[in-house]
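Hey, I'm writing a tutorial for new members on how sequence and structure tokens pair up, and I'd like a real worked example in the thread rather than a made-up one. If someone can provide the structure for the chain below, I'll link this post from the tutorial.
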Amino acid sequence: MKNPILAIVFALLFFVQVQPAFAHGTVSDPISRIYYCYNNNPENPTSDACKAAKDIGGSQPFYDWNEINQPNIPCDSAINICNENDKCNHKEFVTDGHLASGDRDKYAGMDLVRSDWSTTAVSAGEFNVTWKITAPHATRYYEVYITKDNWNPSQALTWDSLELLKRTPPSPAEPESYSIPVNLPARTGHHVIYSVWQRCDSGEAFYSTSDVCFGTCNSVSTTNPVDNNTQLGNTGTNPQNTNYPEWQGVVGTTYNQGDKVTYEGKSYECLQTHTYNGDPNWAPGVAHSLWKEI
């Protein structure tokens, strides 16, 4: 190309086009629907719910687990001006029955009304809801909801079916993860914890749907119920069995439900079959949806 200015322009255009889009996060504990399907073998999932979601949208949404979002949610304050009491209009852009997908057709499989979504065992009391963050952003707020006592998994997820548990104040960009302490109310059976991450440095918001089980649930993939002390890592002084293999944190290692390991002097049982991907937040004693201390 003879014109050097045009050459530079075309080079810049090519550079912009090939740059990957930054995706941003989902709740890892209790594990969200999309993140569970990603870790349940996106191309050939064993979970019936993930299979059904794949039938609708293919496997690509599972690989893009961290971008269930809406790009321009209007809020009271301008971008980069974040007040603690700001209201943002999520309901106009994420409509009833489409909360789990963030009202995006790409993720429509997440909205399927089913009782067999994989659940994380919880109980009433203190619990940390943890966002896994792949691109940090200044935050206007996080909100954590739980379905009301009269909701059940045969019903669509709507804004009216949710009860607000916690809203955080504005905060700077957080690397890798952000934990939100909440107090879970008494519930029975299968419920949903729904969380919204509203950015401060843009109008973008992210949405995450986690299925949880209080006591006994119909879902065949429900993890074994544990008390809140176990989930928070305070398991008392139970004797440890040191005959279990040591958890090594080797990428690509698959742990099956029921497998037992030792780690940092404690013993753990695997709650959900998964393949370790190198994320330190999946380690025993950290990932309470994947491991319980025994």
